[in-house]
Write a structure and sequence with these properties.
The complex is a heterodimer of chains A (105) and B (186). Chain A is mostly helical. In chain A, 72% of the residues lie in helices and 0% in strands. Chain A has three helices and no strands. The mean pLDDT of chain A is 88. The model of chain B has no long low-confidence stretch (mean pLDDT 84). Among the domains of chain B are: 7-87, Four Helix Bundle (Hemerythrin (Met), subunit A) (Up-down Bundle); 138-170. The chains are: A mainly alpha (105), B mainly alpha (186).
Chain lengths: 105, 186
């Protein structure tokens, strides 16, 4: 049996919350779709850090399983997002999420 | 006792370095104007997060983080950034700056919400962590959980990956035929 060395879980959760807020700031502020996708990755990783921190705190492996599932979903999301970016680039559309409003009603 | 406290100090030092690298590279991802530098900063972010996972006894997740994220996903990102060429963000166009103010406000509100909710709901049992045995977080432990208790999540993950792969192929495949050769729907 090993105890948790170093900082307690609340410090990890603070880092996780700060990462999530940083990613949200990037998603809301930036207009390049590639950087929006990268900021989305930061948000997902903030969530993953909280999941793994709680998993360690409770001694339950379910949080790590959840984190691995989030990782797979993030990989899928990157595939679809980058596919969209490449398709937009092929249409010679400007890569700016504020101007991509063709579908607007 | 002395060895245990020395180990504790060592873990604290590693945690501080990894946490500040993590936060700094996260801010760098958001603030670089060139997506290539942002992607490189995100690789640093993922690496320092893997160190934090190791400190939390999640060895397999840390390894998967480095292999899947910092390896595969980021290579795909860098290929796409290299493919569409170096284009920085178009200048602000004198657009409404209330957008930026609103974004900063919303992100700050999110941070405050997270801190308040965790402080109110979870501060009671965060101070002491459960003791775990040596096998916690090893590949054998994760594999056993995945194939017994969480089999449905495992299978659904495989379907999600399959659908995403098909979607990527459909988005990436473009017909080389000219418009008049494309059969119309009528």
């Amino acid at each position: 049996m090993t105890a948790l060395l170093g900082p307690e879980i609340s410090w990890y959760l603070a880092v996780s919350g700060f990462l999530f807020a940083t990613g949200a700031l990037g998603v809301l502020l930036r207009r390049n779709p590639l950087i929006v996708l990268l900021s989305l990755e930061i948000m997902l990783n903030g969530g993953n850090l909280a999941l793994i921190g709680f998993s360690r705190n409770l001694g339950d492996g379910g949080g790590q399983i959840f984190a691995l599932a989030v990782m797979a979903v993030a990989a899928s999301e990157v595939v679809v997002g980058l596919g969209l970016v490449v398709a937009l680039n092929r249409k010679r559309v400007t890569l700016d999420v504020d101007r991509l409003n063709t579908l607007r009603g | 006792m002395l060895i245990a406290s020395a180990g504790n100090v060592l873990v604290w030092i590693v945690w501080i370095v990894a946490a500040f690298a993590c936060l700094g590279s996260g801010i760098a991802v958001v603030s670089f104007s060139n997506p290539f530098y942002s992607a490189l900063a995100l690789i640093g972010n993922l690496g320092s997060l893997a160190v934090l996972y190791l400190l939390l006894n999640a060895e397999f997740v840390a390894a998967a983080q480095v292999l899947v994220y910092a390896g595969a996903v980021m290579v795909m990102f860098l290929f796409v950034i290299a493919y569409i060429g170096p284009r920085t963000e178009s200048p602000w166009m004198g657009g409404p700056s209330w957008q930026a103010a609103g974004a900063v406000l919303a992100a700050g509100a999110l941070l405050v919400e997270i801190v308040v909710v965790i402080g109110l709901k979870a501060s009671g049992h965060l101070a002491h962590s459960e003791h775990v045995d040596q096998t916690f977080g090893t590949p054998a432990y994760i594999g056993r959980l995945f194939l017994t208790d969480h089999l449905l999540a495992f299978e659904i993950t495989s379907i999600v990956l399959l659908v995403a792969a098909i979607g990527g192929v459909i988005l990436g495949a473009h017909s080389r035929r000219s418009p008049e050769e494309v059969p119309s729907l009528r």
